[in-house]
Design a protein that fits this description.
The chain is an alpha+beta fold. 61% of the residues lie in helices and 12% in strands. α9 (311-332) runs antiparallel to α10 (377-443).
Amino acid sequence: MHTSLLAGFVVLLAGCAVGPTTNVKPATPAPLAPRDQLADTGARSFIDSLAVARLAEQKDSGLATLWQAQPLAVDSTGDLAWIRILKDSTLLALVNTAVTNNRELRVAIGRVQEYRALNGVGKADLFPQLTANATASTNQVVFGSLGTQSYDAVTITGNLSWELDFWGRLRRQAEASKFDYLASQEDRRATMITLISDVAIAYLELKELDEDLRISEETLASRKSTLGLAQKRFNQGVISELDVRQFEAQAADPAARVADYQRQRRQKENALSVLLGQEPGTIGRGTPLAETIQSVEIPDSLPSALLMRRPDVLSAQRRWSAASARVGIALGNRLPKVMITGLYGTQRPDFSGLFSKSGEIYTLQGGISLPLFTGGRLLNQQRAAQARVEQARNSYEQTVLSALQETSDALVSARTNRDQLVAQETQARALKRALDLAQSRYSSGVSSYLEVLDAQRTLFTAQLTLVQVQRQYLASTVQLYKALGGSWAGQN
């Protein structure tokens, strides 16, 4: 009966593990819904009317739907799935190249492999440790009054060492290494998501520079034509030299912009090439910004499940769990350790008959070790481990707060950018028509050159601003993707 009770007690001890639970389950934040900054200002109805007017002018423009809310469902697909929402095959190819070749991502993958191996190291102590040993020796010893004795020995043994994990210290060690490994996987995913967003934003900036260069070249051609007309009128004595010099100065502005945008475009291609993990070179182009915009859908609210799968949030949670497991390790170090050791083999004076029955040797022993006095070292190690748990918990909570801020900022940025885009396109169209009218009136001698100059300046600025807003709108969707930590897809 006593033997049965003892066995049951040992089984009970083997089934538990000291220290706090490692199954941390933080509270899930509420779904994100952006505050509508335009609700009470009247700007919302005006922007809506602009979108409707634009739709009447060009039904396939799609701008009327830019401000409409889109439902959102959690997407469980891979890290690259979201970027397909931009429907740009060139961008997809660039992303795939970056994921394959980027050196920083390779470093993160190497860390995952390192922690995978360390996870195996952490679990190894749960199992018996077996070693094989072989020695050959010549010995001389003194046995008191018997005098000096000499002998030779050839020994081959298999040795066993096994710590019985009564308190769960070794299991906590295995758990800690497992959570470190899981955290490294999330760090790798965070590096990949950052890389994808960096590639996408750099690509959008490159296409913005293409549009800026195109607008500058077209504006330069238009202003050179106007300058030519002014020179003819000056030769005819219709206008003064001042008018000609004003038009000449106007033409110099886009000419300088052309050179500047050419420089910026080459530098952006070089930077993007480095992200792709290749030498600087020419980058291909895909869908223009204006066409890409038509495929993008931005939700008005987000389920919290998307936020909680951010890699930095998951990594902080895994490190919290790992810190909790290490409290169990520190506590287990203060408790008795039960060891089973032994050896089995053969020993003979020489190699002849080495494996005969007469040379058989073995040892089997059990032992217990209890730390009695360590100068406070083990106690302070436990206190340090508990302090690290508190640090990890606060770090996790701060990570969640930062994730909420980044996601909310990205969502409101996407919504306000699409509103700004509708208004900016309307302004650019109106100014284009105003310039056409001003040039016609100037050619007919009805209006002065000042009207043309003013119309040219405002249109040029509006066109460049429009391209900038288009890029900002698409970049905000990329930032939202990054803030959510991965893939998401709108429901049709």
